[in-house]
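User: If you would, consider this record:
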Amino acid sequence: MGKFKNNLATNVNEKITLKEYAAFSTSTAVSKVGTAMSGFFGGLVASTFLGLSESAFATYSTIVFFLGFWDIANDVIVSSFLDKNRKTFGKWGRFKPWLMLMIIPCNLVVILQALPLKAYFPGISDAFKVAYLVLLYFLNDAFSTFYNAALTALNARRTTNNLERGYLAAIESILSSSIGSCGTYIAAFLPFLLPNLSEAERYFYGYGVVTLLAIPLTLWNIIVTKERITDPPKVEAPKLRVVYKNIIKNKPLMLYMLSEILGHGMSVGYGLMTYAFIACFRTEQFVIKFFEGTPIEFAYTYSDGNYAALLSFASLASLVTTGLSLFLAPIIRKWVDDKILYIGMKLGTGICYTAMFLSVYPYEAHTPQQIFISVVLWYAIHGLTTGFYNTIPGLIQMSVYDYGEYKYGERNEATVSALKSTLSRILGNCTTYITNLFLIYVGYKQFADTPELIPLEAKASLIYLFAILPAIFSFLAVIPMLFYKLSGKKHKEIVKALEERRQQNLEARLENVK
């Protein structure tokens, strides 16, 4: 480690270099995509590709539901360890060595979670598959909590400049969207490129590449980027009860976390999108016309059951609008407060998904082609809020860290990150469990291998749930932020007061390193 030097800035207001922008953005973007794919593959592998019976799938879902409450103890242990352990590793700081220690086991476990057991080991029993998945879930929770808490704490200390924070968030979000979209397009063409592999195998290899790519990029991020916000040296860490007391007293943080937790319910609808496309379009045949009635009109004939091609169309439709909003987000926030943008994006998302639901109801009154066009249209309009959704919440979280540091002298990023993660996972476990039971109840799980037999009621229910759940939770997430007061001039005053204190801490740390 000694040959790498620039891990701490010399000045708290030192500008971020282009190399730091690139290292931070690419590694965080790939990590984000990997996390999203982990949730996606976890559900798809267990429900569709693993060959579990309905009873085994229900057993697995129930075990994971209750095991999810282990997060409460696990997150408290990990976060308190990271925030209370004030040992620094020279210019590597407090968090980078722990991040390096966790990155390989964390990514290895999530690759194993996507392993297509049904294709590779057809004779394995349901009991073994359930035990295998539960064990990996437990390990993934243990490693990923440590990894994500350390990464969040490290990333929160990159810069004190609010504009730079905005640019970092925007660039990282643009890369995340681009990588995610590329993955969708590749998935559409994989059946033609790798016809001898099963669908589960194609997903497994594609996911493995993305996950393994995160390892060198994270190492690059660790080596290149600098810490500008540091703790004062040789200060005893507060007791855990004091840390949580200060967190609870941080009203802006509590309001923001409550809003994010409510908004987390949107992921249920997003997760159902793939199942809805499989159920509704895998066996349909129709023609999609573009720019109809114009000189550049062309048509796409959908007849091969490759629902991934339709998913790629949906992704392509939102790519332009998402890119536009990602580009505008750091510019508009120069004049519009983050709180207003946050509320606006939540309301916009809720309106888009409400309109999606209304445009496909009742299901039986529309053709598959009409349903697909309605879904894609409103999904594309939703892209206008997606860029802000990927940028603004992270910046508000930085602001509440600043408030905690200003008010109590402690940032405690790891504890806050773990607490937010714990609450989100509890809600996520509940919603995932309900979703899995729903897949069984409506008949999807029974006909996962024979989509042509999926009942019309099941198709309608999947489409309705995919549309209406994000709308409900988006509107609910607005309510707490109406009472959020840490914005605009008040936050600027806090940051200005903190700059002098941070510079003293940084100079003291650099003196100790010498």
Q: What stands out?
A: The longest strand covers residues 286-290.
